[in-house]
Specification:
Distance between the termini of chain A: 60 Å
Number of helices of chain A: 8
Mean pLDDT of chain A: 89
Helix content of chain A: 25-40%
Largest interface: A-B, 55 and 54 residues
Oligomer: homodimer
Strand content of chain A: 15-25%
Chain lengths: 212, 212
C-alpha cells in the first residue's frame, strides 16, 4: 500500500537537483508572486539555457502554458516539495573530526530538506559537547539512536581503517543511504545506497581546465 | 609557441577523472607489470563496464591491441601523466575555518598531482600556525605569496560576505581557477574558472534515492 504515495523527489538527477535551490531562491525573491513567469525570464535571471529551464520545470512541476509560462505560486510549491521542505529528513554523522564538524556546522543541508541532528565519535573528549547546538554521542550509541529516531541517512567521516566497521553498524541500525568520506569502497547490502565522496576531485578537475 | 605543448590533462571529463586514480591503484598493485592487461580484466577488477574501460583508456593512452590488450607499463605512465604526477600543481586556501583546515589536512589531493601548500586567514590567532606542517599567513600576504610562487589554483573557504573581496584579490594575484565553498556566485573575468561547491548536494541526492 505504501507504493501509492511515492516521494516526489526520486527521479531528479544530481544535476537537476543542484539547480532547484537556485530556482527557489529567485522565485522566492519576487515581491509579486501572483501571475506567471516565462522560461525565458527564468533562464536569463539564472544564467541557464532556456531549453534547460523548460526541461527542468517539466520534471519538477509540469509544462508551462504556451506564451504565458509557469504560474509562480504552484511552481514554488512544487519546488518546495521537490526539496523535501515539507518533510525534513534527519541525518547523522559518524566521526567528529575536522570534516565531520565542518559538516555538522554547515547550514546548507536545510536547503534540501535535510537536518544533520547528531554526530558520534569514539573520542571521549568530544562526547557530550554540542558544537552548533548538536550533540556528539559515543559510537556505542549509534544503533540505539538511529533505531529510536528511525534515521535513514548517515555520513561516514571516520578514518579509513574504521569505516567498514562503522558502515556495518549503520546498516544494522536501519540506515538506507551513506555518504562516505573515508577513502575506501564500502561493502553494503544491495538495497543500501552509498556515495563515496572524492573531496579532491573538484580541485583536480579545475586544475585540468587551466593550461600551463 | 606555447600551444605546441598542450597539457595532457585538459580533455578529461570530471567523471573520467574520478576513475583514473582507481585505474592507477589497481595497476600499481600488480606485482608483475611486464606484459599486457585486457579491458575485460580491468573492468572486472574495478567493477566497471568493459565499454567504459575501453573508452577511458582510449582517452588516457590510446587503443589497446586486439586480443592482447594494453601494455601495462606505458599505460601506467600515461595515467601518471594524466594525474599530473610529473608536475605537481600548488594550491592555496583562503579561510582557515573548519572546512579550510579539513582541506589543508586532507591528503587525497596528491593523488591528482595537487599540493595544498598554504592557507590565509584574517584571524591573528591562526596566523603563523602550521597545521599538518603547512603555514597559515594573514590575508594581506595573498598577493605577495601567489605572485612569488606563481600559484594558479585557490580554494575559497571564507564566510559568504568576504568571498567576493577575496576572489578579487586572488584574481589580481594571478590565480586562474577557484574552488568556491562560499554560498555565493562569484564574479570573475571570463578566463578564470570557478567551481562553486555545493556541499549539501551529495547528501541531498542520496536522500532523493531512498523512498519513505
Amino acid at each position: 500500500m505504501e507504493d501509492i504515495k511515492p516521494t516526489e523527489k526520486k527521479n531528479f538527477s544530481r544535476a537537476l537537483l543542484s539547480r532547484i535551490p537556485h530556482y527557489r531562491k529567485y522565485l522566492s525573491s519576487l515581491s509579486d508572486k501572483e501571475g506567471y513567469i516565462s522560461a525565458t525570464v527564468l533562464a536569463n535571471k539564472l544564467s541557464l539555457g532556456e531549453v534547460q529551464v523548460r526541461k527542468d520545470l517539466a520534471v519538477i512541476s509540469g509544462e508551462g502554458r504556451p506564451r504565458i509560462g509557469y504560474e509562480i505560486k504552484p511552481l514554488l510549491l512544487s519546488i518546495e516539495n521537490a526539496l523535501g521542505k515539507d518533510r525534513i529528513s534527519e541525518a547523522v554523522i559518524v566521526g567528529a573530526g575536522k570534516i565531520g564538524c565542518a559538516l555538522l556546522e554547515f547550514d546548507g543541508f536545510l536547503d534540501y530538506g535535510i537536518n544533520i541532528v547528531a554526530a558520534f565519535d569514539t573520542d571521549s573528549h568530544k562526547i557530550g559537547t554540542f558544537p552548533s547546538g548538536k550533540p556528539i554521542f559515543g559510537t556505542d550509541k549509534i544503533k540505539e539512536y538511529c533505531t529510536e529516531h528511525n534515521t535513514r541517512l548517515a555520513v561516514i567521516a571516520v578514518p579509513t581503517r574504521s569505516a567498514q566497521e562503522v558502515c556495518d553498524i549503520l546498516v544494522s541500525s536501519g540506515i538506507k543511504a551513506i555518504w562516505n568520506f573515508a577513502r575506501i569502497d564500502l561493502k553494503v547490502p544491495k538495497d543500501i545506497k552509498v556515495y563515496r565522496e572524492d573531496l579532491a576531485l573538484s580541485l583536480a578537475h579545475l586544475n585540468s581546465l587551466i593550461n600551463d
